[in-house]
Predict the structure.
Amino acid sequence: MAQYRDIKSLRQSVESQASNLNRLDEEISRLKSAGTDSNNISQKENKLKNDTIRYNSIMDILNNYNSLIEGVKEIKELEDKKNDSLDYIRCFNYDTKIIELKNELEPLYLSLCNNIQDLQNNEEIKNAITGLPKIVKGNKVDSSNGKDLDFPGLRKVLNESIDNHAKLLDKLNSDLKKYEKGYGQHSTEYMQCKSNIEAEKNYIRDKETMVKALQKHEEIPMDSLYKALDQEKEKLERYKKDLKELSKEDDKKFRKIYEDEIAIIEGNIDRLADEITDAKNYNDAIKKGKNIEIKKSKASKEVDIHMYERQKFLNDREINVLAQKLSAYDYTASIIIGSSRKAVMPEKTQVVNETNNTKTVNNTENIEDLKAYYEELIKEGNLVGPQKFAGNGYASELNAVKNALAANGVVVESTKVSNDNELEEMKEYYQKLISEGHIIGPLKFPGNGYASELKGVKDYLISHGVDLSNDLNNQTIPVTPEKTSVTNENSKLSSSDETTEPIKDMSDEEFDEMMDNLFRFDDYDEPETIEEETELAKGTAEEPETIEEEPEQEFEEVIETKPCSWIKAHKKQILIGAGITALSIATVLLIAQVLPAVIAALKTKSILTITNQMMANGAQWKLSSAAQKAVLHSANEALAAGLKGSLFNPASGIWTIAGTNLTDFAGAAALKHAAALSKLSVLVPGVSITSLLGSAAIYTGKKLDKDRSPIYTAIDKVISDMKKEEIDSLAEIDVKSEAIKKQIDTNTEMTKEEKERLTYKLNKVTKKKKAKLEKKAKGIDKEKEQPNKTKDPLLELETIGISLDGLTEEDKKEIRDIINQKSRELSEFTDEEIEELKEIVDKLKGVSK
Amino acid sequence: MEEDNIITLKDGKKYLLLLESEYTQKDYFLAILLDEKEELTDQYEVLETKEVDGKTLARRVKDPFLLQELISDFEEQNKAA
């Protein structure tokens, strides 16, 4: 096909061709109406047909040019929008669209450069098309031919956010030192502050991940966004429900606050939904259009009460009322004042904030409120717990209120603690706690709910000479503060058949509470190592129920195998990249879902000691983190970082995987084994539980470091090269194979597994090479059997009797284009098509002559 | 069976084999599902294959832990390519 000097000459050609066609068409009509010889008409019609083909191909060029111009225009518009946008997600999306457009337009541009000479000199178009980095494989960006992407506004937003939180982190670190000095490392204040620090670190890490994703054009981690949305939705639901259920008195006081809060939450939900849509679009684009369903995490049972603007409306007590309401629904409420998080125990409220509390108490207007609240607490039958455990539940809340009043000169006489029946009351309270099924958990963290309260009450009674030996039923665990929870857990399980209330009868709630207490660690940085295998690890836990395993997916017969000739190397590369990304994400999400169940199942079956230890002390937390890394090793860094926060919270020492507390599964191994296993089979259909547990055991416990030795990689490469190499004789194959085999066998650096794997690979490649060579020798090489699609179609024209002699190169190119447009082998052309082709060739020959 | 082959399973599903891997003496392929017209879809699978009595058999790998391991190998191969 002829080249055109510029677009102007192309347009002229189109116009001239169009007018020729019109003329010809008119002439045919005239001849027909004049009743001219049909042969003559037929000739004209053929000419019209051929000229139309030519005209259409020129029109295609023109249309392509117009599309290119439209695309360039669109790129410019997107760049303008990007430059005006302050929203980083939108910046991502604009850039992604620009890159996609560029990738789409580039081949068109290059092809048009062959048709229109001066196009490659058009700097404006050239820059628009080639001036940006392009996605070359998977989600990787090749910036070799482009400058780094710029995201106006984004860095500003992120950096500001990071700076602000870094400042807050500094403040929290300084607070932590104060709390350590003032209250000690085991104080609630200290622990909560430490938890706040971790939360801030996670927040900063998230933002930094986003910056990183931005720089690398990787996917934006979605988990935190989904989690935030889930939380907001839950909050909204609760707040609405609470609003409906407010008493008349509360309604007057709280309605506006609730309504304001609901409006804020609804706004947050809208914003988050937008963010998620944008991020998802961006990620989808990054994944080159591969749709991966990212499942929402299981609804969290955490609720944040944002108090940024609410402090002026709510005093501490009111905050506590809110928290209480939430806890009544079994929510773990967190109160956020400013950006500082304060955990509220699910079963109780607590005095929220030392500073705020003091402020409130100092405000004389609140003294009356506080007194009334104090009376209310007394009326409810609450007791002042031991001072040592200030901050625990109602008892210490009452104590705190009492102290607060005393600090303001209000002496409250009517405390039950000070009456003569104090000890009796304490005993009653002790029995009450026992009868409610509470046990004493590890005492490293006095301050956690009933468990330590029970311990406090017990100590108090013992210190007052009360003999509790007869009262100590088997539900109370001997207090051994220096021991880890392994001891407690172990004691619990090993004594379960002696208990008057077997653990089996414990409610889930109680069990979770117990587990929460069991699995809190203050010193996860300096973990202890438990070498001794626990009873549980030895398999003394309750025998698992029989579970019907889902059979592994059956093999199916491959009924046809054929070579694929149309896949091009570049396209294949993209497909592989996209496939790996797609499968990685799906797999990580699946693992995140099944891991708790796997661990629970493993634990109960005592397959792996690691799982027991993991839940037993700080060393296992460390190990868990490594296992988690192993699980996530294939996912990209951004995704891993995004999941990390949700997998393991070092501050609380609790795993939350896919929104599910690990303790729900692992801790309840003996009781919930069956449920965990059945969940596994639901989550991973088509895989036998045994197989899943087996591989989980391998990957969670052993294969933490899966880096291959350098020699393995080197030999692996040699085998791959051999696979691609053209070897002409069987003997040569043997020689090469033997040489590699020797290298493998004599090497001392590789592991046995590595050697086995390489040997297997080598044998396979050798076998295949030989088979191929033998086939070739027999003359039944498939390549010979099948027409090679990449062969020049013009060569084949000769074989079907169409001679190309006398055609110019330009004419040949035109014929080649016509054949290629059909996207089929010449042998697959119909007779009519062949005839047409013949006519065109003849026609061109005539023109050339 | 080798890379760049299109295979048809008994259930009618067609896959284009993109990359091969071996693990614990078993053969696996990263594959992309094709539709009836043998056009690419967006569904990727890892297939385990074996030869029994001269027949080639295949099944989809669903075990996420194994998948993780194989993906890692595919990734390495792709980087090296």
